[in-house]
Amino acid sequence: MTEPVKRRYDTSRRQEQARENRRRILAAASGLFREKGYAATAMPEVAKTAGVAVQTVYKAFANKATLLKAVFDVTVAGDDEDVPIAGRDFIAAIQVEPSPARKIEMYLTHLAGIAPVVVPVQLLARDAAAADPAAAEVWAQMRAEMLTAMTYFAADLVATGLVRAGLTADDVRDVLWTYHGPEQYELLCLERGWSPERYGRFLRDAIIAAVLA
User: Which sequence positions fall in the DNA-binding region (predicted)?
Assistant: First the structure.
């Protein structure tokens, strides 16, 4: 009678150990990518920093590009929980907000708050894509996911009935896509020294002026 209980316990323990290994690998990779860059970071080095076998790293992440994508996803979400961004509380709060200007302000406040940690990972992927086909696939995936997110956001804004006359949902999506790109943060904050707060206010005002009546 005790055998099934023991198997469940062993399975649970293995699953928890796998989750802990994953967290340690992601933390190690994030630090190494930021410190050394994508090309100079090797998977055995990630394994050593995480305190796991290199086979454990490859079991969790097929290759370095997949690991970079996972680092990006965790950085955006703030955790490694299996909850998509669309299901997060801040998105739900934006969706129920009736004012389109306030929706934009709420989103840009969130974006400015995470940009200092998220944008460097995006730029790593963008730069790595030039020399690594696997990284290029990951960068394309990241861009596609961003476009999808902005498509939903545009539809939400259009549904308020307060978008400027003559603008389609695709037009609004493209404006959001352009301002959301990491290049804006790179230019304004990394090159010109703007604070994330100023960057967020600039994007808020620019998007409101561009898409709302």
Answer: 42-61
Helix (H, G, I), strand (E, B) or coil at 110: helix
Could you identify the residue written with the tokens 């394309």? 140
Can you tell me the distance from the alpha carbon of 151 to that of 54, in angstroms, rounded to the nearest whole number? 39
Cβ–Cβ < 8 Å for 50, 30: no
Backbone phi, psi, residue 83, to 5°: -130, 115
pLDDT tens sequence across 152-199? 999 999 999 999 999 999 999 999 999 999 999 999 999 999 999 999
The topology (CATH level 3) of 83-211 is Tetracycline Repressor; domain 2 (1.10.357)
The string of pLDDT tens digits covering residues 112-122 is 999 999 999 99
Q: What is the separation of C-alpha 117 from the centre of its chain, rounded to a whole number of angstroms?
A: 10
CATH top class, domain 1-61: mainly alpha
Bridge partners of 163, per DSSP, are: 212
Q: In the structure encoding, which two tokens stand for residue 42, read together?
A: 């090797």
**What are the backbone angles phi and psi of residue 65, rounded to the nearest 5°?**
-65, -40
* Confidence (pLDDT) at 77: 82
Q: Where in the chain is the domain with CATH 1.10.357?
A: 83-211
CB 150: neighbour CB atoms within 10 A? Answer: 19
pTM for the structure as a whole: 0.85
